[in-house]
Amino acid sequence: MPENLRNLRRKREIVGEIQQITRAMKLVSAAKLKRTLTWRDATQAYFSEVEAALALVLANAGPGFTHPLLIERPVERIGLLLVAGDKGLCGAFNANVVGAAREFIGRQRARVQTMTVGTRTAEMARRARLSVTREFPAINERQRGADVQEMARHLFGVWQAGSYDAVHICHAQFISRMRNTPVVERVLPTRLPQVMIDPRPVIFEPDAARLVDAILPQYVIARLFQALLSSAASEHSARLMAMSAATDNAQEMLTQLTRQINRARQAQVTRELLDVVSGADALQV
Amino acid sequence: MPEGFRVRILTPMGEVLDTTARYVRAPAPDGLFGIMAGHAPMVAELTIGAIDVTDPAGARRLFAATRGVVRVTGREALVLVDAAEEADAIDIERARRALERARHRLAATAGAGVNISRAQLALARALNRLRVAERAQL
Question: What ipTM was estimated for this complex?
Fold first, then answer.
């Protein structure tokens, strides 16, 4: 029986250590979530202004104006940018996004090739037997956006080369700290923003058509930023919830183990007491 | 006191500037141009260069910016660029290293076609940041 007591104490120690780790991860995720949401809001402001400028410029680009990033053609090949995380320990977050991508691919008649964002995403996509043509790391603040620009350059490159007739992006949409849902959106050819336009005359320098050239890529890049940051925020909140649940579960285990230990210790004391008492009884007889 | 107007510089990384200015000078592909209060509504293309913001008191702030556009409305001038950095926030050592890397890449990829314009752009960005940082130190 003392053997059992020692095992229980050791188990409680280990559970306690695990709980320290999950609690730390929970705190880290909370901090990262906060930073990511601040960044997302900043990007949102940029996106809205770029969208408004694009609408204004397009409305003045003249009838029949078109741009390589806007041309719709029969869709035979689709490029899918699959965005999830670099790491696990975030519940079903990665699996949900990859699941949504598989469902999307299953519904298409066109051939779909994927480009992944996030190391974990790439592993899961390969395991799901998706055809992966390019792997990107998840968005990182330290890169100051250079990673997203790189991704955009790649997308524009394959678009220009005519490798795909449409490019979609599959990512988790951040709804609240408790909820996110995977969505699939088309990025190329770009759908035009529906924005109210100020009818007053505007000077265009050099001209509206050239300006579309300058703003349209910015608009697509801003949408990439939004999708990637929405995914990052969802990942952090998913990890926050997973680690919070793990910490609670560890707490419950600790309570139970403590109870078991107390019971075992009490049983041992009782047994020893019984030994002493029965020994004394034997002597008296 | 001369009239001021609102100036904002927005990038995907966040807002770099939100202030009141008397005069803003920005680089267009065919030369510098200036914006003062009461400017007609305009959208103009910007190229890699320095954005020079003078506040109503006459103090100047300098920003190294990449390509983008500026939109002038009745109320404000809105600069939308891929990236912008205030001159005194530029890490000169980092900018030098970026310049070296860009030079290196340009030399290495000479003749490789597609990558050249990319390397040239990186070179122009690095040079711009260095120039702006050095101008601010004068």
Answer: 0.86
